[in-house]
User: Fold D-lactate dehydrogenase (cytochrome) from Lysinibacillus odysseyi 34hs-1 = NBRC 100172.
Amino acid sequence: MIITNEEVVSALGAILTESQVTVNQTVLEQHSGDESYHSASLPDIVVFPATTEEVSKIVKIANQYKMPIVPFGRGTSLEGHVIPYDHGITIDFSLMDKIVEVREKDFLVKVQPGVTRSQLNKELKKYGLFFSVDPGADATLGGMAATNASGTTSVKYGTMRDQVRDLEVVLSDGTVIHTGNLAEKSSSGYHLNGLFVGSEGTLGCFTELTVKVYGIPEYIMAARASFQTVNDAVEAVVSILQAGIPIARVELVDEISMKQVNLHSKTAYHEQPTLFLEFHGNEAGLKQDVEFMKEIVAGHNCESIEFETDNTARNQLWEARHNLAYAYIHGHPGKKLMVTDVCLPISELAGAIAHAREALNLLSLPGGIVGHVGDGNFHVLLMIDMDDADEIKKADEFNELIVMYALEREGTCTGEHGVGIGKQKYQEKEHGEALLVMEKIKQALDPGLLFNPNKIIKIKK
Amino acid sequence: MIITNEEVVSALGAILTESQVTVNQTVLEQHSGDESYHSASLPDIVVFPATTEEVSKIVKIANQYKMPIVPFGRGTSLEGHVIPYDHGITIDFSLMDKIVEVREKDFLVKVQPGVTRSQLNKELKKYGLFFSVDPGADATLGGMAATNASGTTSVKYGTMRDQVRDLEVVLSDGTVIHTGNLAEKSSSGYHLNGLFVGSEGTLGCFTELTVKVYGIPEYIMAARASFQTVNDAVEAVVSILQAGIPIARVELVDEISMKQVNLHSKTAYHEQPTLFLEFHGNEAGLKQDVEFMKEIVAGHNCESIEFETDNTARNQLWEARHNLAYAYIHGHPGKKLMVTDVCLPISELAGAIAHAREALNLLSLPGGIVGHVGDGNFHVLLMIDMDDADEIKKADEFNELIVMYALEREGTCTGEHGVGIGKQKYQEKEHGEALLVMEKIKQALDPGLLFNPNKIIKIKK
Assistant:
């Protein structure tokens, strides 16, 4: 029996309003790609549910017609996660964008999956609270949970997985479950929170999230420290961590990327390898920490350190960092972004970054190096001409060199962007026989293989 | 075909030395119970592997003869986790007690599962490092990972799940996998670390762990603060947390438990509701935090606050806290320990503790209340006469009242002790349809249902 899209649209039309189901070409195209170099592919149908119940019904219909399902937030993924290569139904969560409850006293907030991090922080500010995870993009909370996103503050506050207390999830048969509870810790049953966070839409659709939030710190100090070399900057970070200084943010931006920052953000920062730093705490404690930090960076050839004393300058600093990928994209019209994303034990970081720079030179590839260096995570940003087969090949080779270097040192091929399709070829090398365990879990929870098929894991039907 | 234990012993004898396999009655009895009130049950055979390869071979033999497998550390579980109610082979990990590698610069340590927390901390002290998770018992790291243990420091450093970077696991078919890597964060594949931590031996046997460790803080301040009422003490903690004071430890010990502490630990602390507090950081920061904390507790009728200025007094304070369960046990010879273990959102904690005290009075049960109150986790310690059916019934009723109160407020039935058999009856109420997801995972990874059968989840064969 051949199923036509018309039949599926008609079944979806019976449970949704007219404006919630579309096969409009422009809308399909808007859901055919992400922010990466991965090639586009159209969904057959895009739906815009407004409630968990509607998501459950959509999933049941998808099941009935054996249509793949791809959950979609803002399309800011970097490894092709949301691209529907198997077509089917894309579920766009933009109508599910309510902040359901701020539990101020519990430092918890319940949100729908379409809420973005900037939207959430705007609301939380009223309560003196903030949400810590800050990828470059203004992604949705649902999308950030799907990839276990992180950002500049993970060195202190952790990744998305560390924030999620509970997920409401629609499973492959339409059942709705909760993966956790609102307690700070639990030893009850298997840890489904941890399993579903980072599952990239392959095990279920998130329809509500409860996440941890934090009090805005009493006192914040931010600084830019410029170094002679990237290696000096990285060694300084390793020394700061080893000294036990509780740092809230520490970002490496190399000299090439500092140029992009200045061009895009109209700043006039030194165009040298730089650390963007931030400390959170009480005034007396921070002053002591910062004095200690200054001694340490001086011992690593720090050439200048400038403190951002007012709020505006501090916000500008972090906005410039967040917009760095966009700075590269806007600075290279017509080209596509490829970003490496390895993470290594901190003792291996300086070597890995030096290796990346050598490999760039060897392959004559232009690229900037930035990183959440406090976590051992760094990115090389490459702008690729997708019409130049040789450049694509070299960029792929480069990515592979970087990944292999990390895996040989017990690191990971992706620190925060996720697997999607871009890191799939490294899964067996990284996980070995554990990949079979992941396959068993996928098959047990999504036997029809309809949830974001062939992402993370490729299972032969 | 009926399989005799002799056949299995003989098969095990072919891969292990004589002293590594036993059916000696005394040894079987040593592996028949834990530290709780749950009734004992003998294993058929106890084995003492020395390597991962031996564990893998034991699991394959168990498979061949359809013998249940129970991993065993120090037998300090509190919900019957290690009691082999289905008999079979108990794997005692006491020979696998090596600290394999201290990666000082990475703040990581690789250990075998039989290493205990005190053994690890003794070694780490040489490097200026410590391992943070500290349940009352001197449990093994393998056992602590199996139950997602926590303790007095979780409010700052997190639970066992937060420390585990990688587990080497022997699966039900004898395959050996690694669940993670040594990077600080990863978005690669499903999060198997999180799934296996807390799986209580039902999904595999841990044969090696890599866990995070921390630098011993530059400056530590500990204190005892006495209050008029338990409610005052709890409200003070909630205020301290809401003020954003970064506390490293905050333990509630009620007046009854303070008496047990003094009796057992030969201390002369005030026998009033008390908070044991500790702060970690730099000197200037801590002094400011402590001044703020003193203001807050004064606002909650704190009657006295005493700082432990020297190391010895500070160690004595925490040793007294760690030995509290043993203090109760030794103070009530012939009786057995039942400990409740709920955890709730912090805004619900004061109400929950008041409810527990009322329920104790209503049922005329003697019991002390202690808790890791910074996490919203508290324990009621009951000493039960196991020959008094009425007392057992009342204690069970009490436990159920406490659990239901927590579940109705989106808490959990077990904050840190785990499910074992004691919390099994609450799993459906707590997890709803998510329990079916857990069952599917169990069946996918242990189709023969041999790994610690009927713990956490009961699946009909």
User: Anything to note?
Assistant: The radius of gyration of chain B is 22 Å.
